[in-house]
Amino acid sequence: MTEYIELHARSAFSFLEGASLPEEMATVCAEMESPAMALLDVDNVSGAPRYYLAAKTLGITAHMGAEITAEDGCRYPLLVENRRGYQNLCRLITSMKLRAPKGEARASESELREFSQGLVCLTGGADGPLAAALQNKSGQSCIDRMIDIYGRGSVYAELQRHLSRDEEARNQAVLALARSNKLPLLATNGVCHAAPAARELFDVLTCVHHHTTIAEAGRLLARNAERHLKHPREMTRLFADLPEAVSNTVELSSRLAFTLANLGYRFPPYPVPDGDTMDSFLRKRTEEGARLRYRPYHGKARRQIERELALIEKLQLAGYFLIVWDIVEFCRREGILVQGRGSAANSAVCYSLGITAVDPVGMELLFERFLSEERGEWPDIDLDLPSGDDRERAIQYVYQRHGQRGAAMTANVITYRGRSAARDVGKVLGFDARELERLSSVVPHWGWKDPAVSAETVFRDAGFHTENRRIHKFLELFTAIQDLPRHLGQHSGGLVICQGLLDEVVPLEPATMPGRVVIQWDKEDCADLGLIKVDLLGLGMMAVLKDSIRIIHDVYDEDVDLAHLPSDDPTVYDALQRADTVGMFQVESRAQMSCLPRLRPKRFYDIVVQVAIIRPGPIVGKMLHPYLKRRQGLEKAECLHPLLEPVLRRTLGVPLFQEQLLRMAMIVAGFSGGEAEELRRAFGFKRSEARMSEVEVKLRQGMDANGITGDVQDVIIQSITSFALYGFPESHAASFALIAYASAYLKCHYLAAFTAAILNNQPMGFYSPSTLVKDAQRHGLRVLPVDVTKSMWECTVVKNEDAYELRLGLNYVRGLRKASGESIVEVRTRALFADLSDFVRRLPQLNKEDLRCLAEIGALNYVEAGRASHRRDALWHAEAAMRPAGPLLEDADAHRELAPLAQMRLEERVHADYKGTGLTIGRHPMALRRAELNQRDVWPAASLKHARDGQWVRVAGSVICRQRPGTAKGFVFLSLEDETGISNAIVTPDVFDANKLTIVGSPYLLVEGVLQNQQNVISIRAQRLESLAFNDPEVRSKDFS
Amino acid sequence: MYAAIHIPNATAQMSSELKLVADSFSPLVEITSVDTVALPVTPLRQLIGPPHQIASEIARRAAERGLTGNIGIAATPDTAILAARNLAGVTIIPRGGESKYLGDFRLETLPIDIETYQILDRWGIRTLADFSALPDDGIMARLGSAAAYLQHLARGTADRPLRPATPGTSYEERFELEHELSLLEPLLFILSRLLTELTTRLNSHSMATTHLRLTLELVDAAAHERTLQLPFPTRDARTMLKLLQLDLEAHPPAAPVSAVTLAVTPVEPRIVQNGLYVPPAPEPEQLELTLTKIRSMVGEGNAGTPQLLNTHRPGAWRMDPVITSESQPVLRITRDTRLAFRYFSPVLKARVELRDSRPSRLFADHLYGNVIAVAGPWRTCGDWWTTDPWDRDDWDIGLNNGGLYRIFLNRPAAAWFVEGSYD
Hints:
The complex is a heterodimer.
Chain A: E1 6-9, H1 22-31, E2 36-42, H2 48-58, E3 61-69, E4 75-80, H3 83-98, H4 109-114, E5 119-122, H5 129-135, H6 139-150, E6 155-160, H7 165-181, E7 185-188, H8 199-209, H9 214-217, H10 232-238, H11 243-255, H12 278-293, H13 299-314, H14 318-333, E8 339-341, H15 348-352, E9 381-386, H16 389-402, E10 407-415, H17 418-428, H18 433-442, H19 455-461, H20 469-481, E11 485-497, E12 508-510, E13 517-522, H21 523-528, E14 533-539, H22 540-556, H23 570-577, H24 590-599, H25 604-613, H26 616-620, H27 624-631, H28 645-648, H29 658-669, H30 673-682, H31 689-705, H32 710-724, H33 730-749, H34 751-760, H35 769-778, E15 782-784, E16 796-800, E17 803-807, H36 818-830, H37 836-842, H38 848-856, H39 871-881, H40 906-917, H41 930-935, E18 952-963, E19 972-978, E20 981-987, H42 989-994, H43 996-1001, E21 1004-1014, E22 1017-1027, E23 1038-1040
Parallel strand pairs in A: 1-2, 2-3, 5-6, 6-7, 9-14, 10-13, 15-17, 18-23, 20-22
Antiparallel strand pairs in A: 3-4, 4-5, 8-9, 10-11, 11-14, 12-13, 16-17, 18-19, 18-21, 19-20, 21-22
Chain B: E1 2-6, H1 12-23, E2 30-33, E3 36-40, H2 44-47, H3 51-64, E4 70-74, H4 77-86, E5 90-92, H5 98-102, H6 114-122, H7 128-133, H8 136-155, E6 172-181, H9 184-204, E7 208-218, E8 223-234, H10 237-250, E9 257-267, H11 284-298, E10 305-308, E11 317-320, E12 341-355, E13 358-364, E14 367-382, E15 390-399, E16 404-410, E17 415-422
Parallel strand pairs in B: 4-5
Antiparallel strand pairs in B: 1-3, 1-4, 2-3, 6-9, 7-8, 7-9, 10-11, 12-13, 12-17, 13-14, 14-15, 15-16, 16-17
């Protein structure tokens, strides 16, 4: 029986006011054999789910509470006694947060009173209300007020002992007040970190919180390292003179009956017409949908749907499906493209309801991956929507449907990582700007990190003296701060919906975007606590598809129905086989391009495989090459065991998808669907040794029973377990493949519309607009420049006789605000511009820089009706027009028709294009250097296909992509663009290390090395790299990990 | 005609040499920048000869002083400066021939602001010839009069009067002694005279000083330098003399004095306007004199205003200068009085016997006894990021001799000390 329970502890979720993660605190508690602990973070309960789950695993009772900041700045430590108390705490936090700007929330006394029931209030430590009152000699009135708010039995006189004189003097005053008011005493340690050693990190966080350095923080820092979780014995010894203060902790703990296990969350029911239940209504909608989807509505589909509906009914999930269906129906009514992704695509009910677009029956997808009885979890349905306004409309619909307090976005906990950690720690330790820049530049920010290399090695290699005390401390703290929460952000699309008031389940906070609220828990926490979440994700390519369809309808006068695209279009497959895929969804990356000519997709399922195969799972699991070899007939397509033939046949015996490993477990070991899903989770990201070995034993037993033993058993085990970590769900791949096919179809058949749409939805995808435009031009698209007399705000397609041409929009003019761009269009619609003066006069909202930029990119060349001028002509006249010269000089130029400036040369025009729009529709900068490059025997990208495998070649181009994937063991991949196309180079780790600055810092590179041509996949194995010192514009590169 | 002399990468020393070279030709010398000077050469025609001879003479005198650089001679100062800065050796530009010489210069050679430069760059204007070719009224209408002037510069037609440097006021006085002095009193006479000179000058310029620099040149060729930083601006010669006297008494020179240099730094004088409700304080001059006397007795750094440092480290403070400004914080006396504490300096080493982990007996120099009352430990630790961290437990103890003491345990060293006593 313990003597003491800690009832006042902050975690790192107090955001810079606590230094340990909740899990660490729970672990220390368990090590001290303490049966419970109360987590009271400052103005939030963000750490509560993680603490609750960790505590549950460790057999500790996780008491809930929070420190609430009042208007006078004092912190009221509140403990939750029961569910009512929890609801009140959540509503109190919500109320104070929603009426104040972010970071300035303070609870008023009326709010404390309104939401006081079910809460126990402690008088607090140094920053508590009683300490402040004692300073003003108003301790008694403070006690009176607290008793008035929380009731006599729910106020405890809190005593903390951190071995400080002032604190002890205060304790004596508190003690006297407690005695005279007959308040129970309560010993706490006002914990801010789990172990004493974390005090240094706590000091650093304090400095970050107060925007100061450690040298200047002075008395802001902790006086000592006593605010850690202390052993009950130590606390008993500290309070040996006040045993009741210690014993009361145990008594109060027994009073605190609430944990997050009885959260009281309920998903809202879906309103159905009289005479219907949610189940019957869902059944009707599903059947209606199934008849449209399945033509004919065959037996296999009927049986699957029936099975799913029965399970949905049993698990009482009809409401959830109907609510998602309702969102999808809204999108459909409003013409918003929507498609379910993720495991929902395994469900025939989802397919019938129009939530997903992949037929799981036809594709033999595994329903259990989505929903199973054993798992006892809510299913997860993610909806892809066009990013931007459409997605916002869908989100607003959900708010409107369920009320402001009935739905909210999930949070995203922003944690300290790499550079942010280096910057904050370095600043606190007083490193100057130059040193800080150097320190943070050492932290790898993109791509691969060698797991064997410690932070210390990285910094030592970069020339830092790690034995230097300051650097050494920096390294220690830099390592310690990793993964600690920094602040709360907003998740990209997760919406939590609740019946009744969501703010009784979890506190809500205002989001940065007006009208949005965010809950204090992140996506994982919601899943762990059984909160149902619908992800409304913005997908750039969905917006591209939607915009393409609109343009095709408006300009081509054709209607494209994505649901009924021909599935065997030869042009699409030809482009895919040639890896001619710039701009296409999911198949455009360098890695995808290097695989496509080998995989040579011939049908839709090949695209599903293609989408899934360039993933860490197949690559790390060494499945990629066997699959490709088998596909090319270089290796026999054998299955691991004859029993697995039906599962692995379509992927040529190589497991590629998560569903396959589930089915493998079901077949070879007799697992149920739910057990198989459990296996996947056991070996998934949150893997634990105990759970893995438990599942493995079960798997082996099952295989033994089925007569699968020996080496085969080992190979199957190996294959299942290694793949569970990274495998990609087939359903998800199929959903993405549909979008990939659609994007490829639109690019191949409606290039102008597709290019306009993708340019209007930047940033997205793998390539920059300049690469997209150059690729489109190489495919024969005529691209017209920005012209204030013709361009709209967005890029548009214009019909010119039989050809469709792309007109660049004003959105590509660097620095031009949307409102200004739209007013150009609006003003010119009323009347054409007479000349530049007229243009400037009618558009006062354009600033000087706007006008100069427009002139410089040639967008003002045609302002004067019937007369074309050149860019410098426009610059000259624009400059005069924007500066009223006064009566003396206003006629200064009247006698001069043309500007006295020389026309821009070709190179100057290209330079101005990149500078002003980030792209050029003119010649590629490399084309201007071709003669010089020819002299140096540099091969144009397009001619590399004529080079021999093994031939020594030189290529050169603007670097459009640098990539150092985690799966490539330090290899770097470069994509270089010239006027003829794209060439790829592979840089080995040692060559990279020797040429790091050149590779990372040069916009134009010359690469020399051995050409590799493997089944038409051409790359250069770089041996020598040279920065090309052209005075050319910097073409933006996209760098990825 | 004007000549400009430009010494690339001139140091401060070279800069003053350059000025001397120019001064040797004309009393009207413009110090255009640290590396360039300009002067009129028309009057030199009669003395030296045509421009190329003038240039040769300038080059010769510059070489004598170890300077090598460029010389430009032109009809206007700016053209001469442009030529000297951008053309190596000697360049003589005849009137009317400016464009031939300046035309190829890059636009950056003009003193041009960044916005105008960017506009011209966008126009494709790279050289002064390009710029010169643009119509005057067009430039004036678009870029204003500043750019129009630049255009004149580019054409070599911008004329302006030279801006010769005028000698500034010096606040330094030097006195060379015929016979060396080894006594303070006669030295004070000299100092008094110098101070009177300097304070008169300060007075005439409505200035005061907070900084005196005294340099005594000694017979052994060494120099004895003293600097006095006053906490208030003054021009009271008597006070300064007294302060110098006290300082020299505390820090006498090591050898007889052969020359005296006294310099003051001029600052805005003090505005003497005391607040109606500000309690009267001693005259700052008198206070400073008193403090200087105290400092000379107790040593530098041992007199001033003690200032608690912003740290939890026990007993951390530093000595600040006495604040004499009107913004002096008013001492707040709270009714929450505490025991006064008397620090032992240095702290006393001690041996402490413990019972139940609490001090029970104390043994230190002249101080020992049984502990009859104890409070603590009061633990502080910090400065963990420095090479001087601390970690200690303080105890307040009452001994059977009736005294109340603070003792502490230096935890890493496991050593006990008596820090002081409570009054």
